[in-house]
Here is the input.
Amino acid sequence: MKLPFTITFEKRVEDYPKWLPAATSIGSVVVAFIISGFLLKLVGGEPIRVMNFFFQATFGSWAVISDTLVKATPLILVGLACTVAFKMKLWNIGAEGQFYMGAFFASLVVLVPLVPPETSGFIVLPLMAIMGMVGGAAWGFIPGVLKAKLQVNEIITTLMLNYVAILWNNFWIFNKWSDAGFQMTPVFEKSAWLARITDYARPYSEFIETGGGLATFMTAIGLERISGMTLHLGFIIAVVAAVVVWWILERSKWGYEIKLIGDNKEAARYAGINIVRNIILVMMLSGALAGLAGMTEITGVVHRLQERISPGYGFTGIIIAWLAKLNPFAVILVSVLFGALLVAGREIQPAGLSQLLQGIILFMVISSDVLLRYQIRFVRLHKPAAGEVEPA
Amino acid sequence: MTESPFAVDMQNIVIRFPGVLANDHVNFTLGQGEIHALLGENGAGKSTLMNALAGLYKPASGTMKVYGEPVNFSSPKDAIAKGIGMVHQHFMLVPNQTVTENILLGLNEPRFRMSLKKYDQKVLELQEQFGLRVDPTALIWQLSVGEQQRVEILKTLYRGAKILIMDEPTAVLAPQEIDELMETMKAMVATGKSIIFISHKLQEVTAVADRVTVLRKGVVTAEGIAASGMTKRDLANLMVGRDVVFTIQKTPHNPGDVVLDVKDVRGENNKGVPALRGVSLAVRSGEILGIAGVSGNGQSELAEVITGMRECTGSILINGEEMANKPPIAAIKAGVAHVPEDRTHVGSAPSMSITDNTIMKSYRQPPVGKGWSIDSKYARANAQELKEAYGILAPSVDTMARKLSGGNLQKVILAREISGGPKLMVAVQPTRGLDVGAIEAIQRLILAQREEGTAVLLVSEELEELLSLSDRIAVIYEGEIMGTVLTDQANVDELGLMMTGTRLDHLKKFEEVSHHEEA
Here is the structure.
């Protein structure tokens, strides 16, 4: 078949419009769903029904939305962790290990214990959050110092420290704090639990019985039952963290230094910026965010320190930061999407389907970058005589 | 092949880019065995026209003939097949391969067995023919910039080029290397090659070219006129479209207190080889001290030790304060402005906006810095003012630095450095690679700093620039100062001898001796 035109890619001469990156990202997610649909059809599935089920299982009701957001919470925090490091072209792929160290340090508060068991949650939880961040930051500090002072490649060190952190956690879980021989510690005191929506179920059901306008409204939007909804305070913490990270990167002097180092290290040195100090600090901030994710996961979801608290959140964080184009707010949206994929993987058989979708989305978003650098042009075909070009 | 007086004949070439008419009905002819200079400011459309000839762009309309034969290139391969070769400004060589390997790269022959010896011999024969001497077995990274350029030229000749397009070949070369290149060019046309020579440098054009075509904003302002009768002033006029003042007026030399006092400074270059071997000099306020020398004699390292970017031994006093081996931030706080040699890799952040590039040194204190945050509104308004005051041509202050031309980027850098109210300005090659209009603007800004009472250390490889701007000129050779002369009393021959390693006191002695002999 011969088309009457050719499609050419031309390098963009002018800047692309500001909305284009967002449009191509959203467009590529849509295209990814369409392609997966075709693949499903090809193997004899029913794409429309599967997609519908996928949507129902992840956003179909308040209960499943809550599940999706629970999964999104650690993803947002590790996504932010990678975002700050990547802004400076510091390739921290150790968010996984920093997550585990955050969980471990936070657990020390109740397992050692650092405070008496009867201490109020208002003291225990902030203390655990701080310890979680300290643990993550410490795990970022090591590769940070090695990179800054000795130019040791941070990709290798952060990757290797992941395994150290996981094994370190296992050692304590099995050896010291094992709950009746299982690879988990006993359940924490309630004071070390982050508030969940379901915790407010009883007062609310009483509230429904009393009736009133608000109750009618909530019934109308399908929120009449909140018992069982496990969304916890960690989600709010993650959103606040995103705002803080955005402020640091876009409004603060430190963020300016981070971006300048990321764009041109020599120019940053020339501008009098202390690069050694910034490498260490940014690795610590990155680690602290991942550590905070570990803290919210053990205090908000599992309520104990146990083996495999992360199904690779730290690595997914790399993909999330990348897909969000290092924009903290986009990290929230991308994390919700990936949270949905995790939830769907639990609901849909075979579970590999959601991994397939995840892979195709990643592929699409990365290749959509071409549209930012090139514009597509349809050129009419004609064959001019040699030496002559028709007037355009 | 039909007989034709012209190697290249381009008529009514039109090339459009989105929003720009890069070439507007351009006519260009290249005679056989001719050196034809193509002149024009950055963005005038020279490279666009040549890229069309090299098969990289397709004109929207117009005709092209090569040796009388109509051609319609759809890829660079077609152009190479017709004997057109381009010598790019930025070399495309593999650093850890030999000269011969680089020349053979991408060719169908040799097929499998390299038998380099045989090809080394072939390369040598080619060299003999044109006087382009480079050791074929040398690795590229061992070669000087001038030698690397010879390899690039050999590459095109080996591929059978009869028409050579040389894109600003002199921009990267030292003065003697430029002379050698010109000899080579003359040797090549003597054997029947034809050369298109793209340049900004007017004296080179008048020295080497037979004819000149001048482009301004995509339009031909002079079509193939004879180069011999032209003066620099005429050419500049055609390029810029207005009179360019070459002799810059400056007020009498009236220096104040010593601002920069460098004593016995020694330091190494990036390869760990001594680059500064005991440099001492002083610059006073309201004075421009020019540093002359062939590139690679320690000028860059000198600027770097003063601005805190490089370690050294010895003493560097700025307003009486010891600054040697302090970090760059100390120099910034002491009021040292630095116009670095490498605009894109050191002086600016390519993917950040003009605004962000203007606050690189001022973001720490008010009014730009406020507490922990940056007042981006103020920064943007300030950048807007600088953009207008310094005549920076860009769509807006949000434009990324890498989208700017060299001249405009240099203006952004100068705007930033000058707006800090410096006490000392270290400017390294501030006009290198810029077009006439931009050079004039930058030179004026530097002179204005002198009037303001700033002490200026100006490093340049253009003697002419140093003679017209500086009050005194110090010549550096292999990391040592050969001598310092007042510009009024300087003569070019003397400076040239010092640049090649003769000390001023030796010259003086020699003069005395010859005077005695005369008497």
